[in-house]
Every structure is written in C-alpha cells, then in structure tokens.
C-alpha cells in the first residue's frame, strides 16, 4: 500500500541524521492568508432573513413612502479592483451604515453576469435622497472636476446659511467645495459620479450665468431638439463653442428644462444664438415617431454612458428620446427627417430586441437557497450561459433573467425547476412572540437560539417590534420537519415563560459578595434550595442594587422572602462602632497573642479590625479598634473594651459643666474642633450629651493628667464663647434688608464699627429669610439690635406719593410684562408703582411704600424718564461681515457694551437670498448699505461712547514676523499654546503652513515667517506684543543653548576612567551636578580611547576639566610605584573572592591598587599592583604569590579529577546514544531547549576560558602561558576593577 507523499516525507525525517535535520519553517510552512476574510459570503440583499446571525443587530422597517431604483455598471463601481465574487460583505456593511445614517431601507442586487449593482431604496423623500447620495459616493467611482466661477458669484451658489449649496449636493449626490472668502481662488471643485457632476456643473453655471456681468442670453428650445444642438458625443456644440468663444450651457437629459443659456462676449454670444436659431428652424421641420418598447429594454438602447444612443444619432441623424427610469411609460420617441426615420427605427429595434427579459416567481424566503452558499447554486446554473444576467428581486418575490434569447431560456427553465423543488421540500413559519421573552429565547450571546439551529437545521430570524408592547415575529426557514420541531420548542418555551414570574429585589451592592459566597458557595446553596428559579446579580462594574429573580410564581415568592431575610440579617450584622484606645493601654487591652480580643469576640459574636502596631506613630495618637456585628453586640463589646482599658490603666472620668448653647460651636463642623482637642490631649474621650436633653454635662475620660488638660481647654473655650458669643435674632422683612445694609454696605458697616457686633443676614438658600443674627458681647448686641430696629420702624411707615411722567414714556416702563417696574420694586423695598391706564392721557404715577423707599424709587423713575427724553439714535456704519465678530459668542461683547454705557444696540437683519440674487443693496441717504448700519439708542454722550466701543471692536489684520523655525513653539503640542494665546487675547492667529515637498524633495515655495493676527486693534496689539515677547524668550533660549554647547576635550589614560566614574557613577555624577555639564567617556569601539568630552558653559566646562585633571594627578601620585606580576589565571577567582571581598581586603591592608587582566587582554596571567609606597607594593606582590602557590595545587588536582570523570561520562553517554534513537528532530522549533554547549548561544565570559573541546588557539597568536584547563564554573572567574 502506497503510504502517500506525506508518509514518505515523515519517514525521511525520522531516519535523518542530526546533520540532515530539517528546519522548523521547512517542516511546518505557514498557511496562506485568506484574502476573503472569515466573514465573506454571498447574499442577495440586505433584508433577506438570516443574512446576519448577530442577534444584537436590529431590523429597520421603512415607511415605504417613496421608492427609488438605480443601477451602477461594473465599469463605474468604485470597488471593481477588489474582486468580482458574488455578495461582497463590504457592500453589505456599507449599506447597513447608510441605513442607520439615513433611515431609508436599502436592497442590493449584484449581477453575476456583468458585475453591476442595482439598488432599491425605500423610505421618506428626504431619507431616500440622503441614502442615494451616500450610495453613489461609496459605490460609484467618484470623478472630480474643477470649474472656474467668478469669486463674486460664489455667495449666490452658497445661498442663505449654505442652504442652496446643501440642497444642490443632496439632489446631485456630489460634494462641492467652494473656496473660503479669504482665498483668492475662483476654482470650485465637484466630486461625485459623472452624472451628478454634470447636473451640479449645469446648476452652478446656470447660477453664475445669472449673475454674470457679461452678455447672457437664453433661448427656449424644445427639449426634443437638444440632442441635435449638442450633436453626437457633444461634437456639434463643442465646435460652436470653439468658433464663437461663448459658453453654451445645455441642460443634461435628466433636467427637464427647455432653456439653453449662452454666456460670453457679446459678439460671440450673438453668433452662437443666431446659429442655434438657424438650426432650430431646420429642426422644426423634423417629424416624430413614437413606438412601444418594453421598459426593461430601454437601457440597451441607451447603452453604457449613453454610448449607444449617441451612436444612433451619429449613424442615422435621428434623436431617440427615452422616458426617465422613474416613469412607467414604455413609449420611445424618434425625432428627425422623415426620410431616414425608417432606417433609424430598424436600428432601434435591433438594439432593443438583442436582449430579452424573463421572470420566475419565487417567494423571498427561497432566494438565498436559490443563490446557495457563496453563490454556488446560481453560479452552477449561469456558468454555461455567461451572457445571461440573473437579478434577485426580494421586494417583488421574483427572479429576473436578462440576456440573449439563446441564453435566457435555458436559465429560466433551470431556475423554475430549482424554485419548485425548494418549495416542495422546504417550509417557513412566522411565530408571534412578545419581545420581552426574546432574551430568554435567544440566550446569553445567542447560545439558546444557536443550539436550536444546530439541532433542527432551521434558519431563525428574530424581528423587532415596531412599537413597545406590540407583538413581533420569529421567522423560521428550513425543512418541514425541522420547522415544526423548532416551532414547537419555541412555543413551549414561550408558554413556560408566560406562566413564570419575575421580581426585582433591592439589595445593597456591598452585600452581593456575601450572598454569592466564596467561589459561589452561597448562591449555589440558594439555587439548590429553590432549583426552579433563576437569580441574576448585576456585574461588579454596574454598581446596581437590583437582583432579579425569575421562575414559577410560588418559588419566586419563597426565594425572595428567603433572600430578604438573609439580607436583613447581613444588615443587622454589619453595624460598626469605632472605639479609641489609649496608646499606652493598647497592648494590654489586646492581650498576649490577641487573647483578650479573641475572648470578647467569641462571647459577643462580633468582628474586630485592629490597627497595626506602627513604630513611628506618636504616643499621643489613639488606636482605633473597629467592631462589626449586631448593634447590641457591638455596644456590649465596646463596654467590655473600655472596662478592660480602665482596669489596666490609670483612667479617670470627670464631668465638665458647659452651657448647652455652646456645645455645637465647641464640637465644630464635622467634629473637627473636639477631635483636635482629643488629639492634643492624648486621645481622651470627650462625650457631649444628646442635643434633645438640653444637658450641660460633658464627660471626659482618660489618663488623669490628660483629662485635666482637656478640662482646662474646654472651660477656657466656654468662657470665651460666653463673653463674645451672645446671640440674638432680629426679624425684618426681606425687602428691608438692602436698606439696612445700605449702598455698598455703608449702613451695616457703620453699625458694626460703632457696636463691635457681628451682624449676619440670611443667605438666598436659607429657609428663614427674615431672621437677622447678631453675635457679640451682650451689651454690644443690644445696642446693634436697637439701631437696626430704629431703621426698620422708619421703613415700615407706609406713605403714598404722586409724581408726573410724560405719557409717551409710560410704555417703556410696562414693556415685557412690567420688567422695569419689578426691578424697581425689588430694589427699593417692595414699593408699589401704579401707572394710569392706556389711553387715559394721564401723567400721574402713584408710588406706595416706606418713605425712604418711595423717595429712592421716585428718583429712579425720574432718572429713567430723563434718559428717555434725551434719548437719541445714532447710526454706526460697520461692514456686515464684521457684525458677528463684534457681537461675540452669544452676543457677550455687545451685551457688555450695552451694560457699560446704558444704551440699546440693534443690529440689522441679514439680507435674504432674494436680496443677494438681485445684488442691489439697499442704501441710506449717506450711501451706506442698510445691512451695514448698527443703531445705538440712549443719551448722546452714552451713544458716542458706545459707538467708539463698537468701532474699537472692528477686526483688523496685523502681521508679525516670527522666524519659521520658531512656529512650532508658537503652536505648541497639538495647537495647545496658540489656542491659549487666542483665548487670552480674543483674537484669531493664523500660522502659515509649512511648504509641501514633491517626490524629489523640492519645496513648492519658501517657508513664510509671517504670522497673521485677526481681531480688534487693542487685542491684536496685545497679541502681537505677546508673540514678540515669546520671540525674545525663544531667541534667548537659543543663545543659552548655544552657550551651553561649548565643548572641551581632555586626554586621560583609559586605566583611570573607572576611578573617574566611581562606584555606580558617584564621582562623575558629582562633577556633572557641581558644574552643570555633560561628561561623555569614550565608547569601547571609539578610536580615541583616551579622550573625555565635556559639554556645557565655557567656564563650567573648563572648571570640570580642571577637576578631572586634579583627580588624575591624585591617582598618578597614589600609583607612583607599579609592579607587574604573573599569577596563574586559574586562581584569580579565588584571590578575588566572593564579590571581590578578598581582593578588597588585600588592597586595604597594603594600601595598594590591584588590577586583574580583562577578557580581551593578551596575557591572561598578568596582574598589575600599584601604590604610593614601593615597600607596600612589594609586600602585596609577595602576598599574592604566596596565595597562588597555596591555591594552584588544589586547582590542578581538581582539574585532573574532572578530566578523569569526564572520560567515564563520555563513554557512558556514547553507549546510551547507540541504544536510544533521537526520533523525529526539527531544528529551530519553539519547543527545543537551548544548547548550553554552543559557544554562539553561550559565549565565553571572564578570562576567556573555554571547554576542553574548543579549537586550540594558533601558536603564533597565543601568549606564553600554561595550557588552559576547565574550572568548576562554566563562565570563568569574576573580575573586579
């Protein structure tokens, strides 16, 4: 039996030798990427049932008010380069987004024959227009065109608030970009489908022609003659434009308009108009023939991009008029000379009958089965007939087949047979279900519904209800048996749910964990006890208190009662008390190993939270023990603790008599005052009586000395309160308060100074608005109260006074429901002001109230009337484009001007579209436009001041030159700094954009240094000054940066570098901090190993250099005598000792420095000893040689034994390898362990020791030294320098 190619490969791998082992990437090659993605699949439309299995997606039901159908050929599809398979998921996703955005219902059909797209959009008129625009932008190739329109015509294209432009973009499904007013460009850019661009261009040129100052004429030419003027493919009108130089705007086919506009130079316009009129006389002799052609055949007469219809015009000279796609008419009209209409008609019929259409009735629910998985069924039918186009019409329950007759007929027969088989063998059913049961039918993440699908093989679609409380359908599709099973299962589940009950329990979120228990033990016990109910807790992130219980009614009630009982017990057991314990008694109260606390806890059934025994805590801070449990148990445990504390310490309890009226002030807000007293007195317990008892007894308990200290503090505070804390309440009407206070607080300030009492008026949020509180010494409070009562008596004397006000000003006082009169009443003690009835012509005004209030109100009314009598109106002419800037955000600036100068300011209305189109500005006598005039009303001097304030707000543009390299500092991170600058100075700052670079790196323009500031002159000047200050700061920073970049180089022998660095960089770090410099030592691969680079200020760098040279000189003096000695490198590690402990002790004993060779050193045995005294250097050398002689014998014996043991182990491993096979081995696999014998993965460290199997060093390169033999460590000896 042939094992197959995979078996042979495996056999080869198993028999391969180590040097033939395959690589991991060869044995397990990566899988090829799936270009279609995991979710690709066919579909015939967006609304087909089962098209999307995500239960969270909701179906949208349109209003079916308007229906629009349009077609996108393959060559115009924007995604034609991304594959041509049936049913792209990207298209469905895009349609879903458009549905959510517009609210319209969209059905998509993709042709398997010519890869074109057909869309059916249903919904409200506005929704359909919006959806169509979005579809064309996303699915149709977006062309772009720029047209030159004079700058002065742009505002007419925009319309009022851009409404005209928005409407034009919606109707043409394009995006139109118009340059900003400060941009000098005249080019308008149109982006969108070709047909939409044509429509938009026509409308824009039409608007421009209307406003053009050049010669413009319009000719009414019947729509049927337009193709003759245009010519085949626009050739005729193009030649006429070339000859005359005039612009000829002919409405496109989709625009039902007979007028043709001609714009240009007068002479050219006249020639063009005359030529069109001459042609029109000829066209009037043409005749028209109408024929009936099926609607489905019209598109074949038109052709792609109207190519066919233009070819007919070129070949026959006859124009073919096709009714619009939206029209139900099937009549086609031919216009032209009578003698050639016959041949043209023959050509039209040939084009129309080259394609036929057949329909197959098929319910919408079978469409996806006809298509098959990934379009396999439909492709199987149409693969032999590539010219047949099959279109699935879900909304009409039909399948439409188009193409040549020889291809359409067999495809139609196969589809009819396929539909019949599906209807005979499959079924569907709709079940009405209350939407509130959906979550139970679907299950968490769709588990229940997916399980039912797998069991029955049925497609299940859950539809949303159109309104709350309304029944919705669950749609089932599949085999008859499967549909019946799924239907029975769902109905049984619904019946069960209807007989169940759902109840919500309110349980605090903090107790949910206690109910659930450790690892769910608690809730598991409840569910076992009530096994018919479902208990759902909110997630920890939700922080809700609602627990839902669902199941049979009786079981739910019992479960809820049980859980409520548990909850009440938890609440009762969660009462907490905090007991402060004196720090000197804490250990004795707790007991040895917590014995006392444990005993109290067991006897009282409570829980204790003990504070840690912190060593650093002050001896005067009390230790707080928290007791948790039932209230009565906690109180019993507290008493036990306090009793225990009293028994182990010198604790006394005394009573201090303090008047109850001072208790609140002594306690302080939130108990802060009394807590501070307790803390200052070693944590003594201070207990105030309940406020309801009105008792003066305050209990103080604690150590005797601390209790006495707390008593003295409380008594002293009480005396102070008694002396200066006398309080009395005075009742006065709220409207009198402002007169008691006086202007700018003058009256109340005078009373406070004379009596030295504190007077507090009620705040706006207080309940009792009449109570005035007076605080101070008793005699001072009485004096202040008497003065206030005298003022109140005068205010309560009500008088009635009359005054005359010119009737022409009465209307001003009663406007806006008497707003001014209400302000006067509020301001002057609630006075009553009565004006005569309208039409009485009386000037008498009656005022009632306290005398002072009446007099003040009369003065105020007289002042207002005087202002009205002297009121004038002045006009301030400011261009309307600046009005919005002058008004400010929500009119803040103009409101401030009105308030500051007591004037009324009225801005003109913006001109409407009609005024703009007429372009005839309304002017006053001075020649100013009405839309530029701002009217200011008030006193003459106030109006002049307000006028100047308005003119000061007129924005100007000033320029500031800031070097381009500083612009990024002006802008700041993500524009933060420039926005802050604009906010502070209320201006707009425009920073020039950096120049663009082409592919060769060439800039399109030189960088600009000019920054523009737009705003009022005052604000612009302030912003300019701020920018110039910033420029100076940046220049100063640049100069400072250059000064800090001074470089000094110093040559130091590399052997001194470690000493200059110091331990963990301590020495070099100190130099850097002291002189504020950067010190860079050479890298190992640097050519100049002895050069240290110092960067900083010149003086600091030179000082740092002197400091380093001083260290070097000191090191040279310390290492004046130097001795080199060869010591076998195998004993270096023993001399160095663990972490260099041994060698450091040697250096300390002999006051020398010992350096061992580096790994790259030529002689691994050479050790250098240096020091300031020659005798000590020699003594250290002798000591090292003695140590070498002591250690070398042990090392040699150890190596000899290791070599002997290694031979035996190598032989045993060789025998073992012969018996055991390595199996299937792959190199580079992630499961392979690292090879510790590899010198590549594990290179040799230290003094360069290698294993005995390494290749020997060439004789010429090897130093004279004993042959290296391995030590116990694989890494060699540790070196310390």
Automatic annotation (TrEMBL):
One of its GO terms (molecular function) is mRNA binding. It is found in: Cytoplasm. This is Vigilin. GO terms for biological process: regulation of gene expression. Its main location: cytoplasm. SUPFAM superfamilies: Eukaryotic type KH-domain (KH-domain type I). Gene3D superfamilies: K Homology domain, type 1.
């Amino acid at each position: 039996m042939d094992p197959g190619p995979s078996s042979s490969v495996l056999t080869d791998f198993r028999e391969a030798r180590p040097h033939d082992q395959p690589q991991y990437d060869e044995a397990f090659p990566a899988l090829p990427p799936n270009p279609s993605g995991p979710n690709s699949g066919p579909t015939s439309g967006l609304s087909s049932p089962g098209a999307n299995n995500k239960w969270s997606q909701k179906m949208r039901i349109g209003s079916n008010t308007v229906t629009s159908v349009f077609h996108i050929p393959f060559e115009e599809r924007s995604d034609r380069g991304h594959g041509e398979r049936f049913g792209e998921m990207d298209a469905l996703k895009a349609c879903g987004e458009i549905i959510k955005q517009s609210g319209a219902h969209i059905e998509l059909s993709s042709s398997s024959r010519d890869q074109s797209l057909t869309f059916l959009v249903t919904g409200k008129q506005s929704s359909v227009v919006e959806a169509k625009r979005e579809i064309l932008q996303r699915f149709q190739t977006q062309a772009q065109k720029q047209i030159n329109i004079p700058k002065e015509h742009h505002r007419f294209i925009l319309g009022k608030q851009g409404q005209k432009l928005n409407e034009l973009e919606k109707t043409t499904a394009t995006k139109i970009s118009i340059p900003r007013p400060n941009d000098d460009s005249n080019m308008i850019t149109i982006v969108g489908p070709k047909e939409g661009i044509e429509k938009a261009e026509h409308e824009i040129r039409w608007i421009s022609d209307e406003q053009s100052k050049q010669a413009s004429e319009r000719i009414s030419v019947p729509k049927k003659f337009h193709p003759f003027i245009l010519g085949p493919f626009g050739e005729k009108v193009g030649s006429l434009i070339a000859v005359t130089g005039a612009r000829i705007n002919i409405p496109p086919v989709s625009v039902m308009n007979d007028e043709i506009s001609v714009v240009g130079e007068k002479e050219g316009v006249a020639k063009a108009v005359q030529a069109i009129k001459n042609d029109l006389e000829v066209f009037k002799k043409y005749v028209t023939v109408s024929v009936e052609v099926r609607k489905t055949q019209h598109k074949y007469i038109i052709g792609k991009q109207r190519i066919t219809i233009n070819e007919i015009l070129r070949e026959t000279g006859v124009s073919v008029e096709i009714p619009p796609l939206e029209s139900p008419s099937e009549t086609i009209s031919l216009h032209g000379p009578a003698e050639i209409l016959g041949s043209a008609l023959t050509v039209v019929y040939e084009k129309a009958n080259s394609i036929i259409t057949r329909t197959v009735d098929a319910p919408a629910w079978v469409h996806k089965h006809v298509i098959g998985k990934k379009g396999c069924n439909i492709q199987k039918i149409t693969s032999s007939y590539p010219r047949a186009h099959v279109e699935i019409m879900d909304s009409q329950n039909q399948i439409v087949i188009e193409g040549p007759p020889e291809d359409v007929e067999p495809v139609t027969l196969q589809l009819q047979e396929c539909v019949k088989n599906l209807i005979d063998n499959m079924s569907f059913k709709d079940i009405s279900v209350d939407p509130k049961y959906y979550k139970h039918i679907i299950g968490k993440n769709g588990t229940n519904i997916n399980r039912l699908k797998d069991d029955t093989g049925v497609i299940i679609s859950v539809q949303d209800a159109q309104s709350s409380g309304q029944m919705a359908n669950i749609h089932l599709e599949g085999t008859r048996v499967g549909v019946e099973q799924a239907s029975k299962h769902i109905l049984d589940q619904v019946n069960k749910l209807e007989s169940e009950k759902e109840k919500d329990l309110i349980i605090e979120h903090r107790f949910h964990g206690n109910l659930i228990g450790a690892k769910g033990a608690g809730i598991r016990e409840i569910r076992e006890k009530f096994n018919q109910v479902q208990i759902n807790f909110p997630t920890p992130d939700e922080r809700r208190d609602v627990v839902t219980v669902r199941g049979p009614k009786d079981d739910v009630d019992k479960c809820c009662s049980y859980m409520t009982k548990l909850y009440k017990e938890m609440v009762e057991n969660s009462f907490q008390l905090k007991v402060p314990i004196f720090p000197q008694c804490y250990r004795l109260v707790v007991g040895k190993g917590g014995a006392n606390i444990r005993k109290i806890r067991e006897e009282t059934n409570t829980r204790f939270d003990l504070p840690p025994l912190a060593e650093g805590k002050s001896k005067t801070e009390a230790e707080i023990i928290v007791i948790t449990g039932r209230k009565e148990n906690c109180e019993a445990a507290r008493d036990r603790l306090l009793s225990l504390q009293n028994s182990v310490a010198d604790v006394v309890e005394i009573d201090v008599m303090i008047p109850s009226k001072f208790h609140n002030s002594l306690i302080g807000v939130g108990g802060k005052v009394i807590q501070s007293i307790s803390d200052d007195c070693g944590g003594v317990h201070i207990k105030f009586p309940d406020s309801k008892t009105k008792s003066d007894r305050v209990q103080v308990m604690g150590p005797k000395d601390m209790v006495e200290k707390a008593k003295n503090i409380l008594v002293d505070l009480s005396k102070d309160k008694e002396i200066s804390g006398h309080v009395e309440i005075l009742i006065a009407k709220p409207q009198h308060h402002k007169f008691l206070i006086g202007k700018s607080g003058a009256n109340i300030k005078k009373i406070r100074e004379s009596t030295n009492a504190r007077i507090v008026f009620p705040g706006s949020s207080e309940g009792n608005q009449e109570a005035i509180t007076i605080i101070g010494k008793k005699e001072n409070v009485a004096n202040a109260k008497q003065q206030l009562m005298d003022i109140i008596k005068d205010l309560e004397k009500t008088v009635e006074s009359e005054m005359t006000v010119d009737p022409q000003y009465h209307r001003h006082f009663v406007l806006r429901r008497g707003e001014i009169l209400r302000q006067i009443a509020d301001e002057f003690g609630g006075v009553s002001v009565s004006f005569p009835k309208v039409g009485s012509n009386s000037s008498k005004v009656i005022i009632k109230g306290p005398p002072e209030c009446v007099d003040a109100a009369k003065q105020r009314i007289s002042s207002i009337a005087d202002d009205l009598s002297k009121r004038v109106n002045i006009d301030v002419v400011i261009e309307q484009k600046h009005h919005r800037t002058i008004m400010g955000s929500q009119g803040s600036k103009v409101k401030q001007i009105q308030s500051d100068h007591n004037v009324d300011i009225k801005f003109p209305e913006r001109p409407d579209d009609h005024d703009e189109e007429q372009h005839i500005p309304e002017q006053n006598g001075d020649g100013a436009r009405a839309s530029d005039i701002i009217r200011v009303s008030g006193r003459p001097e106030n109006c002049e001041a307000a006028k100047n304030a308005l003119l000061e707000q007129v924005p100007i543009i000033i320029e500031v030159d800031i070097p381009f390299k500083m612009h990024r500092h002006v802008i700041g991170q993500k524009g933060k700094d420039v926005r802050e600058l604009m906010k502070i100075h209320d201006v707009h700052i425009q920073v020039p954009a950096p120049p663009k670079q082409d592919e060769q790196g060439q800039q399109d323009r030189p960088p600009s240094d000019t920054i523009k500031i737009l705003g009022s002159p005052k604000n612009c000047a302030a912003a300019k000054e701020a920018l110039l200050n910033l420029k100076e700061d940046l220049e100063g920073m640049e100069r400072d940066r250059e000064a800090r970049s001074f470089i000094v180089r110093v040559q130091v022998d590399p052997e001194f570098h470690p000493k200059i660095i110091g331990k963990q960089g301590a020495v070099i770090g100190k130099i850097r901090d002291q002189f504020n410099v950067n010190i860079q030592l050479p890298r190992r691969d640097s050519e100049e190993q002895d050069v240290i680079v110092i960067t900083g200020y010149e003086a600091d760098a030179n000082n740092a250099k002197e400091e380093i040279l001083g260290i070097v000189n000191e090191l040279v003096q310390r290492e004046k005598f130097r001795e080199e000695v060869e010591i076998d490198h195998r004993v270096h590690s023993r001399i160095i000792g663990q972490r260099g402990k041994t060698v450091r002790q040697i250096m300390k004993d002999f006051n020398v420095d010992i350096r061992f060779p580096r790994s790259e050193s030529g002689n691994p045995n050479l050790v250098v000893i240096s020091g300031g005294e020659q005798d000590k250097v020699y003594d250290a050398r002798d000591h090292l040689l003695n140590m070498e002689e002591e250690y070398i014998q042990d090392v040699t014996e150890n190596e000899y034994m290791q070599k002997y043991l290694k031979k035996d182990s190598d032989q045993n491993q060789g025998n073992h390898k012969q018996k055991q096979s390595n199996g299937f081995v792959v190199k580079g696999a992630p499961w392979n362990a690292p090879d510790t014998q590899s010198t590549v993965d594990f290179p040799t460290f230290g003094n360069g020791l290698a294993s005995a199997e390494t290749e020997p060093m060439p004789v010429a390169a090897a130093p004279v030294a004993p042959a290296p033999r391995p030590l116990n460590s694989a890494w060699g000896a540790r070196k310390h320098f």
